[in-house]
Amino acid sequence: MRRSFYFCFLLGLVTSCASPTGTPSSGSGAAASTTVADHSWSKAVDADPAKIHARLSSASADWEASLVIDNDKTGIWTVKPFSFFPQYATQELFGLDDLGRCWVLVSYSGKWTPFPILRDGVWLGALAQGEADPRVAGPEVYTGGAAGRLYQLRAYHDGGLDARRIAAFPGKELHTVVAGEFDPRNDSPEVLVFTRPGAWYRVSPTGEHGEWVSEELGPLQARIRDALVLSADESGRSPIITAARDGAIRELRFDAGGPQWSLIHQVGQGRGRLAAGSDGRVVYSTADDGRVFRHERTASGWQTELVYSGSHGPRGLAAGRFHPDPQQECLALFGYSGRVELLTRAPGQAWQTEVLFVDRDKGHWLCAGEFDGRNNTLEIFASGYGGRIVMLSRGAD
Q1: CATH fold of 21-394, please?
Q2: Average pLDDT over the chain, rounded to an integer
Q3: In what order do the strands lie in the sheet with 111-119?
């Protein structure tokens, strides 16, 4: 009897936890409709994505789920698409895991070939691509994590990969990095490193014999958990949007007087993830209590509206064209609920939400990229505590 009781209790608990609880915002306070999906989608398949196109059941009537990599019980914390190998037409997918490995995943006719490029021993989390080293052809990739070491990753025309440690920050965790030309006072591009405990650094390729030089730019009130580099403005410099544990979304710019921080939005919850619209005027952000916000730059400054109130712990956010109608504004959300949710809004209408996929554990990251030219929408990639990367794609047009 005791075993039967616990089974029934757990079954009811799982059923209640898996149900969508979010409320999309219409801008006028009215709740929008929600589409509930079949949770059997996340069931694993006995297939190797390096050998075949490994489908996971089906995501919905319009979406297909497939496996990119299964890392067993090792969480994959950050996933981003970059153009890395110059000889390949498609982008590559980068994944950082809890053992300090950086996976470079190359797509080929529906399959994914994994290349481990680094093993730092403890989790990696910070990941960015940018032109920060003029001595290297093409944009480089930079990563780091709990060990406090910053690495530069490079690819070669013969298919080779390598990783080089370029800086170390003892006693610090690297949570966020960005790379590019930001500071007009600096004669070279730089990598900006945001750490825990809260501080930030500039790392420049200006040392002797090819070495890099690190400079502390000062303490920070709170840890920067995510950062977006927007398109360059009229000054030729790119503003940086940051999300911090103190609940603030800020804009960072550099001028002749140094770094200038300005507040975009503040709430009483930590901010976790950011995503940008295609024109750079709109930025989206999450709060730890499940809210999603839309920030639009206008002539009078940044204007903020609430888009969605969902489950606690959103840890993945992506913006892009996820709907066949290009007029639809689209967001994808992932987090501790384990659900990948699609939020869409037609001009002048309320936000609608649909559950696309339920993973086998909590989510931690979400990104989007163009990997399937048979449709006119972007693909969505989800990763997290489930130890795998899943691709969601719409069917062919």
Answers
A1: Methylamine Dehydrogenase; Chain H (2.130.10)
A2: 88
A3: 76-82, 92-97, 101-108, 111-119
